[in-house]
Predict the 3D structure of the following.
Amino acid sequence: MRFRFRLPGLPARGQPASGVLAPYRRFSPRWPLRILCAGLLLTAMIAWGMTYALTFPYLLVPLAVPAVAVAAMVIWALPESSNPPVGGLSPLLFAFTAAMYLWPNYLAIALPGLPWLTLLRILGVPMALLLLICVSTSTDFRKQLGGVLSTDALIWRLLVGFLAIQFLTIAFSPELGGSFARFTITLTNWYAAFFVGCYVFSRPGAAARWVFLLWVCAVILCFIAIWEARLGRPPWAGYIPSFLRVDDPAVQRTLAGSARGGLTARRVAATTAHPLIFAEFLGLIVPFAVHYVMQNYALWLRVAAALSLPLIAYAIMLTDSRLGVGAELLSIVIYLFMWGALRWARTRSSIFAPALVLAYPVIFSLFIVATFAIGRLRAEVWGGGAAQPSTQARIDQWNSGLPKVFAAPWGHGIGRGGDVLGFVNGAGTLTIDTYYLNLLLEYGVLGFAVYACLFARGVWVSGRAGISSKATDELLLLIPISIALMNFIIIKSVMASESNHPLVFMMLAATLALTARVRAAEKEALAESGDREVKPPSRRRPRTAPAVRLNRR
């Protein structure tokens, strides 16, 4: 007996060739065109290989552009599928969120000539590729994602507009390679996380699990911060394996720690690269902890969240950060107002809720006065003493940066803000302390306006939908999301780091996804109640048939 081996998909001997798999069709160009295309491809491959060999390892990132372009074309050409790989989006998004805070991003594999192979890149790049595959191969996925984005067209248009501005400013940068590398990081860490979040958070329960993960990460980081304060260094310093050790001055400064001028106490940073980044993260999580306490959750969760608030406050104190203290206090004050407005709208018989809302201007004014009148509170919120040089540095940066903004109102290129400003701190390194000034320097006046409108719109949409009558259970998370985005807008006035941007872009995605579900619930309730618009009765008298007179003879 003779066995014959045949590759799958190839016709057997003596059988006609099968057709091309759907939805593709056969394309048979003439031989001159085939020879021309093959020659051009061979020439391009030889030129690319010679350039790679002569410039290694200095141009590895630019030389990777053709490979990325080919991969994008392959993904675009994938056939339609009724079963896209959407199941991997949610685990990757949750793993990306956990890795962002539970693993120090400066512990990475650093190969010569290559970018750092961090855990965020290991998770973010597959997440972005999976997103592109789902968009390319599934009509249902595109419809569902488009339905979430159409919830508020202004948000996604501003987001795409800011993405376009970031890309265009690469042309204005004197360092095209560095700016392009920075742009690719935003594609995976910001925008891929946003679009994946729009799909994942549209599923019931996903947003609640994501917020719970963030709160757990915050509690874990608080205990790490306390441990770091007692040791005087990060717990893993001195125990980093050689393949994760990065010889970079910024990493060495992070491991050595920082202290504010005139003080000897260490400012803790936990797993982040700087104490201000850690304080900003805690300030963004405080609204969710308050939400757990104030809403109708399980008793163990409400008690745990109540205990976590002083723990977070103590960790913020260890960072010696004014922005963290201000965000925590502002979160509590604003949440009380939104809680009162929500309870007043739903419980008309309540007396405390309308009293709280009507007296809120007085309460907020007393809060502001207290931050100035109470000495310790004034020092923690507005600064003083050792914090005065930091305040003066921000003033000096604005004074020297605005003329450079007016000189190039279209921007100097993504990732170039600190270099263009040229401000050197006491440690002898370039720094920029205000993100709004960084926006103006990098993206120009238009980029700053689009960015500000994007997050202001996010605050408005999430806050309005959060106090809707149909926002229940998980949908009430729109309230702390609105407060967190408000805190982010305020924090960016005194902090220029972009480390927490993936988190706030996922919050924008949760805003659209949860708002879409709120509006769907409102439409469903309207349809069930049969509440249709009824035309008011007309004031005109009804027309009657004319009277008929009978003439009697």
